Structure formats: C-alpha cells, structure tokens
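Supplementary Methods, section 5.1.

A reviewer requested that the exact input to the structure prediction be made available. We therefore reproduce it here, unchanged from the version used in the analyses.
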Amino acid sequence: MSADSRRSSPRLVPSACSADRWVGRAALPGLLLVLLLAGCAGLPSGAPRSEVVDNHVRLGLAYLKEGNREAARRHLLRAIDLDPRSAEANHGMALLLVADTEYELADEHFRRALAARPDFTSARNNYAVFLYERGKLEEAYRQYKRASEDLGYSGRPQVFHGLGVVAARLGRREEARAAWEKAIALRPAFALPYLELAEYHFEAGEVARARRYLEAFDRRASPVPRSLWLWVRIADRLGDRDLLASKGLALTKLFPASLEARRYREQYGDPLGT
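The structure derived from this sequence is encoded token-by-token as follows.
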C-alpha cells in the first residue's frame, strides 16, 4: 500500500439544525456520518410548505444521527414528495443512501441537490468525499476545486485538506503541498495538514522539515498510528535509537492492531515482548 493511499481521507458532514441553516461542519477523516443535530423542532401545523419541508429534513437527519434509518427515510421521502427539487432534502437522502450502501442512488441524489443549488458547498464537499471513497478521483478533484472557490464557506480548510489528499493520490504532489499549506493558512489550529506535510517532506528527503511539521501536528492532536509510524521512520533516518524505541513502544501499546504497529513489529521486533 502506498503512502498516498494511506493518507487521511475526508469524511461526510451533514448540515446542522441551527440559525446558520445548511452550513456544513467539517470533520476528521473516514467516510462517517457524524450528524451534528440536536433539539430540532417538530412539525408546526399550518406552516408554509417550505418550512414543512425544512422540518421534515431536520427530523430526518436527527433520526439518521440516532441510527433510526426508517424514521429518517419517512421524513426525507416526505420532504422530497413535497418539494422534489429541495436541495436539502436530496442531500439528506444522499447521506441516508450512503449509510444504506446504495451508492448509485446516493450519487443521483447528490447530483439533484447540486443541480437545485449549485452554491450548496457543504453538499458539494460531501459529494467530493463520496466520490473519493468510491475511487472516482478525477471527479472528486473537480468537486473539491469548485468547493474551494466558495470564499464564504466555513469549511474551506477541510476542503483544501481533501483537495490535497486527492491531488496526492493523482500524483500531483506540488498541488497537494500547496493545498495543505493553504489549509493551514486558513486555520492554523487544524492538525491534519501538518501530518500530510510532514509525510510529504519526509518522502522528499527533507527530514528536518518533516520533523517540524510532525511536532506541529503533535501540538494540535493526539497521536494516531500514522503519526507514530512516521516518527519511527524519522528516528530511524536520524539514527536516534531512543526516539525510535519510544515512538515504537507508543505505537504498539496504543494501537496494537494497526497496520503501522504490525509493520513496526516486523521490522524492529515487538517492544512489549508479546
């Protein structure tokens, strides 16, 4: 498995039930539906159709968060029945269908959402994540590029992280580097681009710079198998046996079942003696 294929992938994020309606929240890697909804209102009687549609969508996403897909489906289908062109309803249905592993139908509903509202950047970001996870890298790249152009989108740092991940998978290493640097410029506290850049510079033979980025990642996030394995490789390259042993022990103790821990044991032995 190549280093690029192990990069932290983005994940789907839903819209939140808040005053800033349908502004997506960016999240950490992996294709997971972490729905940030709480306290959504019930359906008011006599409300305008658009408000009823919105409330069905909110309730559908709230049920999806709870794992009640059938209740979510009822509300989302009702919203689409009331307004087949509702971008929010189609986006919610796309998220539900991803959870159902109905990928072709999910793709159709993502497209409907974006056709209805081309400026629905959180849906476009989610569609890019979806395409990436389905291995459609060029399509994912195009969606990320377009999402990155929305200067008002609060999730732009995560969009640039995702853009960098896809660019790296496509072999566009300099574009990947620039995207991760942009993500850091937009949100210096965002940890993942530092890890990406640490690995980028390590692969380029720039060990000192890789170490600085990895230290910056550690100041912003807890260790993960990938970061500890990179520490091991940096320590090995520097000939620092104490650092290598320390990070290897942490890797095998904290993440014993990880691919990185297995590789460490194969290459350096088991520090736990198990």
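DSSP finds 13 helices and no strands in the chain. These observations are discussed further in the main text.
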